[in-house]
Amino acid sequence: MTALHAATTGGAAAATATTAAEPAAGLVQSIDWLAIAPVVVPAAVALAVLVADLFATERTKRLLGWLSIAGLAAATALLLPLRAGDRSTFCLTGDPGACSYTADHFTLVIQFLVLAGALVTALLSVTAVREARMPDGEYWFLLLSSAAGAALLPASRDLATLIVALEVASLPAFALVGMRRGDRLSSEAALKFFLSSVTATAVSLFGISLVYAATGSLHLEQVADRLDHVPGQLDTLAMAGVALTLVGFAFKTAAVPFHFWVPDTYVGAPLPIAGYLSVIGKAVGFTGLILVTVIAFPAYSDIWGPALAVLAALTMTFGNAAAVRQDPARPHSAVRLLAWSSVGQAGYLLVPIAAAAYSGRDEIGATVAYALMYAAANLGAFAVAALVARTKPLHRIADYRGLYAERPAAALALAFFLLCLAGLPPGIIGLFAKVAVFGSAVDAGLGWLAVVMAANVVIALYYYLRWTALLFRAPEGAAEGAAGAAGARVRAPWPVTAAIAVTAAVSVLLSGAPQAVLRFASGTLFPH
């Protein structure tokens, strides 16, 4: 009781000192509308879509999807005037350096990944919404709202804005997963996703409250400064806060043991939303982890560094082991393999963040470079899966046998995406990204983690190459050949074709200039 009283008294004293130092903390400077435009535009279009849906007829409701695509394209284009970076807004008048929103190089790269990924998801969704008879207005409103929250998160520079952005990105996603009304798998997936996410967020909020009690501030830079000089009686409180804060973001990254929602959620969700969660959902989680660890909690790197290293090893090993065990003939095996593959890839993405605890912030560039590669290749794989599912709705890996004979372009694109994810030529960007991640572990002195990663890369080759080889094998039997011919005669919707073409073109461009991508992503993301 004495220790608790001392901690409470110390936290109150810290808060009092903060108030004295920031007499005008409740006031903010004028808003930089250009800096926040990539977040405001999708949010505004989401509201416009919701209102327009009230007055639209059944025929005109199809236009809501194209309005949403135009909004996402405009938001992505608005990143160009910001490419110089270093713009901040919503800053405290008492401390102009403490801002809630910062559009720096790191922010713009992640916002591009999020908005471009949402744009590809929207292209895949145009046909899916109509064919599955999902409500147009609600679907597009939820997708745009989630994209706006995901775009806000990398710019957040205080813990309150960070959590709000995380929830704005997550809450619409729960509804999107369960959008297929009357589908038992969809409803079950949404419920599992919702309950596990809410629990993780509650734990993170509790951790943030402990951090605030110990520091008296929510702004990341101020938290970092005050954790360096936290009073001895508050040290345990601060350590607990740091550990608990990481839980919510670890859940979003699907790091083991917070991964259990992934396979069932991907299977139950509409395919475009499964692809969205695999890329944008992960981008949200990793961005949050980077911000809280590298900017806010460097004083406790001796706690989160080893923890994230262990999580990385467990995540890549468990994800790849589960992917290897997928039965190609089992229904939904293709989606489950992509789900478990995304868990394994999450392990690789965690490695540079853990390495940053030992060798500095520059290691974060490897995670960003890997995320760019993973986003293009994984969304492309889901786009091809959406195309194949039009004629083979069981989503089995076996359904891809002989795809080259039916749809040569789609088969070649999927093969290239899988080779990128595996890190094999001609998917050069995948190889370079893995080398960069491997190098960050070696530079940080995490030799054991580099060995674990190397072993997992070899394990992953098995299931990626098995699926790739299946694409070029002849279909079994005349019946399958006839089914393949029938599938070949079904014309692919042009939005799905466009999504495959865009992701394939981006993957090829990244593979053509891997060094440029790595230099771009590995630049100074944060001031030291």
TrEMBL record:
Family, per entry: Belongs to the complex I subunit 2 family.
Gene Ontology cellular-component annotations: endomembrane system; plasma membrane
A Gene Ontology BP annotation from the UniProt entry: ATP synthesis coupled electron transport
PANTHER family listed in its UniProt record: NADH DEHYDROGENASE (PTHR22773)
GO molecular function, one term: NADH dehydrogenase (ubiquinone) activity
Cellular compartment(s): Cell membrane; Endomembrane system; Membrane
Main localization (coarse): membrane
Subunit relationships: NDH-1 is composed of 14 different subunits. Subunits NuoA, H, J, K, L, M, N constitute the membrane sector of the complex.
EC number annotated for this UniProt entry: 7.1.1.-
Keyword Disulfide bond: no
Top enzyme class: translocase
Catalysed reaction equations from the record: a quinone + NADH + 5 H(+)(in) = a quinol + NAD(+) + 4 H(+)(out)
Name of the protein: NADH-quinone oxidoreductase subunit N
Record membrane topology: Multi-pass membrane protein
A Pfam family hit: Proton_antipo_M
Cited function: NDH-1 shuttles electrons from NADH, via FMN and iron-sulfur (Fe-S) centers, to quinones in the respiratory chain. The immediate electron acceptor for the enzyme in this species is believed to be a menaquinone. Couples the redox reaction to proton translocation (for every two electrons transferred, four hydrogen ions are translocated across the cytoplasmic membrane), and thus conserves the redox energy in a proton gradient.
UniProt keyword terms in alphabetical order: Cell membrane, Membrane, NAD, Quinone, Translocase, Transmembrane, Transmembrane helix, Transport
Top-rank taxon, per record: Bacteria
Ranges of residues in domain NADH:quinone oxidoreductase/Mrp antiporter transmembrane: 156-458
Natural source organism: Streptomyces globosus
UniProt-listed InterPro entries: NADH-Q_OxRdtase_suN/2, ND/Mrp_TM
TM regions (residue ranges): 36-56, 63-85, 105-127, 139-156, 162-179, 191-214, 237-261, 273-297, 303-325, 337-358, 364-388, 409-433, 445-465
